[in-house]
Amino acid sequence: MPQPTTTAAPADLRSADSQRYRWEVSGKPLAIEISLDVVERLGNQIVQTFRAITSRGSEIGGLLLGRLVKQPKPAVIIEDYEAIPCDYRRGPLYLLAEEDRRRFEEALERWRKAPARDLSVVGYFRSNTRRELVLDDEDQALIRACFAERHNVVLLVKPFASKPSLAGFFLWEGDSVPPASGLTFPFNRAELVKTETRPQAEAAAGSPPPAPPAAPVRPTIQVRIAVAGPDTIAPPAAPPAQEVRAAELPADGKPQTARRIESPPAAGPKATEAVKTPEKAAPVDGKPSVAAKPAVEPKPSEIKPPVAAKPAVEPKPAEVKPPAAAKPAV
């Protein structure tokens, strides 16, 4: 289904402040721009007539006023409208009787005889309370008689009680006007404003979303902790060698050189396994043996420190007297 192109900027108009909806279908000879102000005013009048209980008719019709723009592509600009009354002698629909038709043609001639005015008749409109949004035989006859120029357009608007009205444009194609519209659109100002912004939203949706800002990189400190397994546990270090001096000197009186006494190696797991608890011998008489009382350890206050041995007096070497000198021979 062809999609309309919309614009909020005028194509070639007096007022740069007016907003318009652009109706354009591929393959159609004309594009149409209608003022959103016209959409609002005409739409309200159509809905009020449709809802009025005391009204004799449910449809209205009249003239579309605007201009034709030929550059860069031919387009009809609709800036106003004029509703032509109907007596509804043929029912509640906008079906023109003889008197209605005369009134309609007089209004059309009045606009065509006003060359000094900026606006001219560019088409015909009618509200549509019928089942289908199409042109019937009455419409086709009125178009051929009063709107035979190839730039004249027809607008049908179908009102609803609980939702926006639906509209469609009809154009000359060759020697006739097709009964069906090439594109329908909501005849509501608020809805058309949404339609105008939709192409931009779709274009934005087609582009990839911007990447979220990267989170700040925080410096991290890695700490490695080496966990030793059971196979890597080193045995306890052997206590340092102790130097023991002899308490007494040997009998020959010469000092004895101090010896280094190495501590016994630590018992490993195998040595531990080798030590077994001796089994208790069963008593001969069958009576349980009384456990031996453990030796009472002396209290620290009762332990007397050992008396230090007196150092041996090193004997003095024997005094050697020099031999007496021999007397010389006489």
Description:
- The protein is built from 5 helices and 10 strands; from the N terminus they run E-E-H-E-E-H-E-H-E-E-E-H-E-E-H.
- It is α+β, with helices and mostly antiparallel strands.
- The strands form 2 sheets. Strands 1-2-4-3-5-6-7-8 form an 8-stranded mixed beta sheet, with helices on both faces. A two-stranded antiparallel sheet has the order 9-10.
- The chain starts with 19 loop residues before the first strand and ends in a 56-residue tail after the last helix.
Write the topology of this structure:
Blueprint: E1 20-23, E2 31-35, H1 36-51, E3 61-69, E4 75-83, H2 98-112, E5 120-127, H3 137-146, E6 153-158, E7 166-171, E8 184-186, H4 189-206, E9 242-244, E10 259-261, H5 269-274
Parallel strand pairs: 2-4, 5-6
Antiparallel strand pairs: 1-2, 3-4, 3-5, 6-7, 7-8, 9-10
Task: Give a short overview.
The chain is of the alpha+beta class and 330 residues long. It has helices spanning 36-51, 98-112, 137-146, 189-206, 269-274; strands at 20-23, 31-35, 61-69, 75-83, 120-127, 153-158, 166-171, 184-186, 242-244, 259-261. The longest helix is centred in the middle third of the chain and has 18 residues, at 189-206.
